[in-house]
TrEMBL record, chains A, B:
One Pfam family in the UniProt entry: Peptidase_M28
Peptidase M28 domain segment(s): 259-438
Listed GO biological process terms: proteolysis
SUPFAM superfamilies: Zn-dependent exopeptidases
Record lineage: Bacteria, Pseudomonadati, Bacteroidota, Flavobacteriia, Flavobacteriales
InterPro entries the UniProt entry points to: CPQ, Peptidase_M28
Name assigned to this protein: Carboxypeptidase Q
Signal peptide bounds: 1-17
């Protein structure tokens, strides 16, 4: 009888806790949707500042602006963490055409890939060899590729429901296409944009030469998906079609920049640190609203939403706006390095870097036992149409924090439209829906709340 | 031992069936995403035809176009079902301003509500009384309302995650605001648009006078959410602010139109009919891409996707493109009436009329036992990020088919952006994402497949 009573008390205790969590999470979402700051902050970042490539004036304006906004929130601590970042500048104009017979040309939309060298000032004109991937290069060999422009044209796989998987399956063409093609004497590469939609926007993104000697490097540019289709068809009709492109980009010496950090110090376990963040830098073509202005302003609002809900965290919660995710990951690397030097104990890190779309769930990089515990919270998210808790990656910037005992997590918004905008001139504010952005902030704040309350012990 | 063997065979049979279903559904989604017709059809409906208000030339063009497209699919039967529909015409120009002092005016974006009468040719100018809902009218009474324009300004509730619930909580203002306000001597009504976002688009939609005598009816118009905020603030600063509006709309006699129907006749149970559909009419301000061009083209593609997957349905599958959902529901009513007269046995009906956004699930109007059986199929949808099976409504057009033994269902896409576009000039093709539309078609075809295969016996 006594045992039954204890059991009953235990069960009613559980039920009560559940109710408290439901109420807290309801209050967090209500505030996010009716009194959120994320959308206003994003409006400023996107429309008053714009694209924030590492080393640019805009990136420094974004550092100043977000620090000032965090200062206004009255957190326990707001500071800048210095970090040296690469400075690559696109230079304008970029220009390309295809030439089907001498003098008969069609202009094409291109953009230099991030990190690419310039073409010679007069541009490059050469015959084109279309390939479907890196592995085709060895088959064709130097005989077929020497002196040519290699056109990488393997599209993203439309059958994959998670578009990030389709991206992963293609992005090697952009990342290492130029360094691989130059081994066979190619003079330049053109890469089909990482975009599932057919449209006219070229999408930039990082590429790397590795330790290839500077005088052997060849320039690389992205072409829009419509452009890629047109070029491919034209090459079938006329294999002798030539491609011309000219770009004027340049790598400068590294410059000083900053991660922007704000902190609420934990009440009872201040030494245990939970990070929530996104990256403040973006590519230069659009205003970086989805990638990753959204993740920054959501992360900033997490601290504010928790405050507004009246919750006093046990652990220290830090918002970190990382600099230079796009072309160097220097901010994430530096943050983890300093944390290790200071022997800081990080227990949880959550990144939002998949766009400001309707949140569908979270992915977790953690032990099976921790994942099981976290999964027990899933019913608390279902009223907000957040159903998907999966094991998998988290975010590039928090990756360097990985070690035993830390839970890394990524917000997973609906991915269908992300690559319509990713790294392109149409990654702009008007493509972010206020409610979708706010639901993401609410979801993140709710997860941080539960982690702080229950921990992984 | 024998029993165990039988059990094992039974279980392995189930596992096999599961695998077959998984394969079939995978093939349906693959085809939807790589070889779907929905987006092309929608492009034509939206960009070559445009808004399709009942009784308009465009509505008839849409009947001809969709019938011709269904004919091309080589179905077993394609036909038009005649139905008389109301013909309301907006008339242009519509025009409004607020006047803070004589001659000092600010133009406002408005649109007549569907079914409203015109203003007098010179328009209406009157003082404005702002209310938060129908119930305020009785409190204010004739003394305060007589001779005034009533301004209904209760916003949609941003805290509701399902935006359709927020819509339901507000739409009485639009539907019966005018007929209720006229009882107290009001001369016109202005209704805040049913839109969660602050923007400049007025959203139309149906209103009704019921049996109110024609000479007592007063005109009604929608104002954009930004306009409503501005008017409300202005009234606080200056309660004597006047509002002027002029509209020229007119109700004509009913005209003949059609439901468009295509059918694959069942192989073994042809007498059991499954309907999949959307409504072909739309409001006139945009091109009706989300409401409900999307539902029509998805429904059309369901039959094609099932065919392409190599599946031979046991039951008869009928796509029905209903006419006149927006301002009369005559198509849905007629379809059900004819079905009853012909003693047709409908076992299932699925409607898509909530926009062409990423599908999140289905709602079902059916018995608990049927719902339990259907819910057992949910794991088959989870690879496609479709997680939400709920009991609830289905769709307006299939509602008249309701009776014991039929399962009614509605596709439930993500609802966050729907009311940004609903019934407004920005319900246009560029706001539909191809993949999101196609995923909806795949989800619908998969549900129809499972219902046909397993039934509810």
């Amino acid at each position: 009888m006594r045992r039954i009573l204890v059991l009953c008390l235990f069960i009613s205790g559980l039920a009560l806790a559940q109710t408290e969590d439901e109420k807290r999470i309801r209050s967090i979402f209500d505030t996010a949707l009716t009194d959120g700051m994320a959308y206003d902050w994003l409006n400023h970042l996107s429309n008053q500042i714009g694209g924030r490539l590492s080393g640019s004036v805009q990136a420094e304006m974004a550092v100043d602006y977000t620090k000032a906004q965090l200062d206004e929130l009255g957190l326990d601590k707001v500071y800048l963490q210095p970090v040296m970042v690469p400075k690559w500048v696109r230079g304008v104009p970029e220009f390309a055409y295809m030439e089907t017979s001498p003098g008969v040309t069609t202009n094409m939309n291109i953009c230099a890939l991030g990190g690419s060298i310039a073409t010679p000032a007069v541009g490059i004109k050469a015959n084109v060899v279309e390939v479907k991937g890196i592995e085709d290069l060895a088959t064709l060999g130097e005989e077929k590729l020497s002196g040519k422009i290699v056109f990488f044209n393997r599209p993203m796989d439309a059958e994959l429901i998670n578009t990030f998987e389709a991206y992963s399956g293609c992005v090697d063409q952009r990342a290492v296409g130029a360094s691989e093609a130059s081994k066979y004497g190619a003079v330049g590469v053109i890469v089909r944009s990482m975009n599932l939609r057919l449209d006219d926007y070229p999408h930039t993104g990082n590429m790397r030469y590795g330790d290839e000697p500077i005088n052997e490097r060849i320039p690389a540019a992205a072409i829009s998906t419509n452009g890629a289709e047109l070029l491919s068809t034209t090459l079938q009709l006329n294999p002798d079609t030539k491609f011309y492109f000219k770009q004027n980009c340049k790598q400068f010496d590294d410059v000083k920049s900053f991660n922007v950090i704000g902190q609420i110090t934990g009440s009872t376990r201040p030494e245990e640190i939970m990070v929530v963040g996104g990256h403040l830098d973006s590519w230069d073509l659009g205003d970086g609203s989805h990638d990753d202005g959204a993740g920054c302003v959501q992360s900033m609002d997490v601290l504010r939403l928790l405050r507004k809900s009246g919750y006093t965290p046990q652990r220290t919660i830090r918002v970190v706006l990382f600099m230079n995710e796009e072309n160097g990951l220097r901010g994430g690397t530096e943050y983890a390095k300093v944390a290790m030097e200071k022997k800081e104990k990080h227990v949880f890190a959550l990144e939002s870097d998949s766009g400001g779309f309707t949140p569908r769930g979270f992915s977790f990089d953690c032990s099976d036992a921790d994942f099981e515990k976290i999964t027990s919270w899933k019913p608390l998210f279902e009223p907000y149409m957040i159903h998907s808790f999966t094991k998998g990656g988290s975010g590039a910037d928090i990756g360097p924090l990985k070690k035993d005992g830390i839970v890394l997590s990524g917000l997973r918004p609906d991915s269908q439209r992300y690559f319509d905008h990713h790294h392109a001139a149409n990654d702009t504010f008007e493509h972010v829906n206020k409610r979708e952005l706010e639901l993401g902030a609410g979801a993140m704040a709710s997860l941080v709340y539960l982690f702080d309350k229950y921990g992984m012990e």
